[in-house]
Specification:
The complex is a heterodimer of chains A (about 110) and B (about 120).
Chain A (H helix, E strand, L loop, with lengths): L8 E4 L5 E6 L12 E5 L6 E4 L13 E6 L2 E6 L8 E9 L4 E4 L3 E5 L1
Parallel strand pairs in A: 1-9
Antiparallel strand pairs in A: 2-6, 3-4, 3-7, 5-6, 7-8, 7-9
Chain B lengths: L2 E5 L3 E2 L5 E8 L8 E8 L6 E7 L4 E3 L7 E6 L4 E6 L8 E9 L9 E2 L3 E5 L2
Parallel strand pairs in B: 2-11
Antiparallel strand pairs in B: 1-3, 3-8, 4-5, 4-9, 5-6, 7-8, 9-10, 9-11
The chains are: A mainly beta (about 110), B mainly beta (about 120).
């Protein structure tokens, strides 16, 4: 059972917009710690697609955006493409556990 | 360019101790802000943060596995070693060695090793 809660799956048609939520508590996201998002394409290693809540690394399409409010964060993907089909994980820091924590992952299916 | 590579046994027997080595390049663990973290992923499951070692030799462990984990560094060899005692079949996973820097990209895990697949079985 992961410290951060994500929906197990989301789906959308090509061109549509989807959002993936990440819910934490007052000892992690709610305490003001940054949320980072990782994309894991099938059979590959994770890759950061959003850091510090709403910052995109160079090379990540601007179709990806991030936000954070209270004890939750979200990753939005607009103009869905088949290449976006992957598992997405949120990550933050937890002051009670004194370590990083991950969400359980969300499988994005592009219909 | 930062790179990391994990090495170690692909198969360990239950109750044995696992020793994984992360050999890295492109940075030094003597430089302020540098960090190396171990993360694992059981087959078909989520990522799990295990341990971190910093440039000042500070060490942090996940609470649930704290008694079984040890992380250390050899700065002369640019290596970080993770040991996990008393291995169990539930510890079967891909183990990743990951770079981060306190001042870069808000400390996110920016470069990942390819991962070491470890199976625990007799």
């Amino acid at each position: 059972q992961s410290v951060l809660t994500q929906p197990p799956s989301v789906s959308g048609a090509p061109g549509q917009r989807v959002t993936i939520s990440c819910t934490g508590t007052s000892s992690n996201i709610g305490a003001g710690y940054d949320v980072h998002w990782y994309q894991q394409l099938p059979g590959t290693i994770p890759k950061v697609v959003m850091y510090g809540n709403d910052n995109r690394p160079s090379g990540v399409p601007d179709r990806f955006s991030g936000s954070k409010s209270g004890t939750s964060a979200s990753l939005a993907i607009t103009g869905l493409q088949t290449e976006d089909e992957a598992d997405y994980y949120c990550q933050s820091y937890d002051s009670s556990l004194r370590g990083s924590v991950f969400g359980g992952g969300t499988k994005l299916t592009v219909l | 360019q930062v790179t990391l590579k994990e090495s170690g046994p692909a198969l360990v027997e239950p109750t044995q101790t696992l020793t994984l080595t992360c050999t890295f390049s492109g940075f030094s663990l003597t430089t302020t802000g540098e960090r190396v973290t171990w993360i694992r992923q059981p087959p078909g499951k989520a990522l799990e943060w295990l341990a971190r070692i910093d440039w000042e030799d500070d060490k942090f462990y996940t609470t649930s596995l704290k008694t079984r984990l040890t992380v250390s560094k050899d700065t002369s060899k640019n290596q970080v070693v993770l040991t996990m005692a008393n291995m169990d079949p539930v510890d079967t996973a891909t183990y990743y060695c990951v770079h981060s820097h306190r001042g870069k990209w808000r400390g996110c895990f920016d470069v990942w090793g390819q991962g070491a697949v470890v199976t625990v079985s007799s």
